[in-house]
Please model this.
Amino acid sequence: MRLITYRSSIVLATLPFLLYHRSGQAQSQTSSTAIHQTGRTTDTTENTTTSNSAVTHHRTRAQRDLAPSRSEEIRVFGGGSTRQMVTISSAELSRAAPGTSAMKMLQRLPSVNFMSADPFGAYEWSTRMTVRGFDQDQLGFTLDDIPLGPMEYDSERGLNINRAIISENIRRTTVSQGAGSVEVPSSSNLGGTIQFYSGDPEMKQGGTLQQTFGSNSTFRTFARYDSGALNRSGTRFYIAYAHSTLDKWKGSGRNEYDQINAKLVQPFGENTTWTTFFDWSSRKEIDYQDLSMNYINVLGSNWDNYYPNYAAAYHAAQGQFSSQVAKTNDPMDAAYYAGSGLRRDFVGSTTINTRLGHGLEWRTTGYAIADNGFSTWVTPYESSPNGAPLAMQGRNEYGRRFGFNSHITWKTKRNEFHAGIWYENNDYEQDRALWEEPVLGQGAPLSPYTWRNPRSAFMNEWDYAFNTNTFQFYMADTYHILPNLQINAGFKTLIDTTHSHVILNNPAFTGQSSLPDGGLTAEAPALPQISGNWKITRNDEFFFDISKNMSGYDFSGWNQGSAFGTTDASAFAAQERNLRPQTAWVYEAGYRMHRKWFDGLITGYRVNFANRLIALAEGTIINSVSTVQNVGSVTMNGLELSGTVHFPHHISLYNSFSWNRETYDNNYNTASGEVRVRGKQAPNMPMLMWKSQLTYRYKGLTFDIDENYVGHRYVDYMNTVSAPHYFITNLGVRYDFGSFGILKNLNLQLNVYNLLDQHWIAVVGEEGNPVQGDYQSFMPGAPRQFFGTLAAHF
Model:
């Protein structure tokens, strides 16, 4: 197989470390930086609405941008954390082109691999994240105590951060790479957690206007108004709006995004704060085509769907292909007419944070989330009643989640006790149907931008409803044995129950007289966690963490690659009796050091999975057959090395190296025989990654250049086909002009993604993974992209 040629970067290849922001030689050892490999003195969930928020949030955003405060950014290698944790501040998020996903910014961290076909990381179908060897559906995500589930494309169990908050309103992001704290509300995190925190409204009235232009006719506007303190108690709010339009970087189609955020903060005296947050999001995305390595080698990485050329798709459905497409191993699936994803979401939450007495604090958050989605693709495997060889196949989804979590903290001289509960009820419905496309020359094809009612379809295929109840209780204690030695111990109880109900089954389509219908429960009375930190000197410390986690069961409609998506009722009945939830024991230990000129970290880890469930993809991506298989135990080992060098003259350099080996411990059996996967590397996971960033900052000028190396990634479980390794270099330059009249901190920013214009495979496994061989589950990354932004605060 011909491999795509990749050029490695000359710019940073000789640099031994990757550099992060340090504003000058005169800064103290605890000065703030953009990315922190850090810990906290306690392992609690941070909350942005503290009782003294009326005092601490007294500066305008313009002032914060000019001089980031330590309240925004945790100290470098802050000391005291009993697990490996990293925080990215709003200062670091602001260096990316506006509209860039907060998840994409995490790719600069050790062992984090973020995949996306577009430069912003906004095209949600293509976005995937792995942390160490944990896939995205094995992680837990939250926003201000709102559980976001595993942030899958379809919103069965959660919501993507891009739809939950505008990226400019995120204040910081905290990543726990190994295992999250027991108090994080999540039923999916076999491994780490990623917690996003929104900023509060400003105490001073003002606002922000920001305009971005760039490649692919990118046009993005962001506007925010802060009311300032409306009274002596500190009542204040903000409202923000973002609008984006951009063309696909290949093929045809225009993606549109609109989003509104609002937040209200109301202090009550010195000890209590009430906060309310609201988000509305609307997205219309035209899909890039999923490719196989065969398609990439024969047709090139710029190959895409036929849209808007309906005639070409029509003829292809009749078996009339171009000469080049005919050379592929599957001409029918090389391209379709069009695919799209339409989403509309609402998020609301309210939080009370109060001090109940000396050392005693209580925080409670209630939330509600509503999701509506419509995904389309025009299939050549289904004909329309009018005789056209094409039909639009669409999947509707409707989700409604509500819940609450409550935490109490009691601090004594040597102990910090934490306890809390989380409850969520999740109603979710998913259906699929077919709509008629026109005979060629007898009308316009159906628009992929338009929502369609299942009642107008000429065939309804199936309709599923699910109800999930999740309950979690936790207790933990951090005991300070000595001033420099602490132990954290705790556990959580987790019960996650899902019941399915078949609303509609069309045997003419499914071939089944009845579809699976029933319930699955994942429960664990006590999932333990113990961790510790020993600060052997003022600047050196050891830490360790041991924890056990369990994941609830995935659910989705018929034949959609989950435990509930089996093709017949008898197979599901067997799963109800025999299926066991996935669990993982996570072990990690590390050493942190801090010097005036250098910060360093080394972490080793091991994970033992049990009852590992994998989804096997077969057939075409339109007529796929997905099955769930228990492959038994899986073992993962890994190592992380990272360091930041602080040079004089406003320069810093950061570099990280990570190695991960995740292999299956057993072979497994299917109806076709034994599959010999023992010792094989898990698909989609790179074994080697290297991250580097060089930053220079002087007065109003900020310059940074970063590079990511990602090793090869297998697409199949037998490790026969892989995406080659790649180097990607990005450049950012920003200049702050200061104030001009009512305008505060006028600034101009330029971002260049893929500076060296590499040809690379960004995404692996978005359509699932086969047992062996090539599969239509790759997406190339964008070529070099330019974006410019002008922003002002008032």
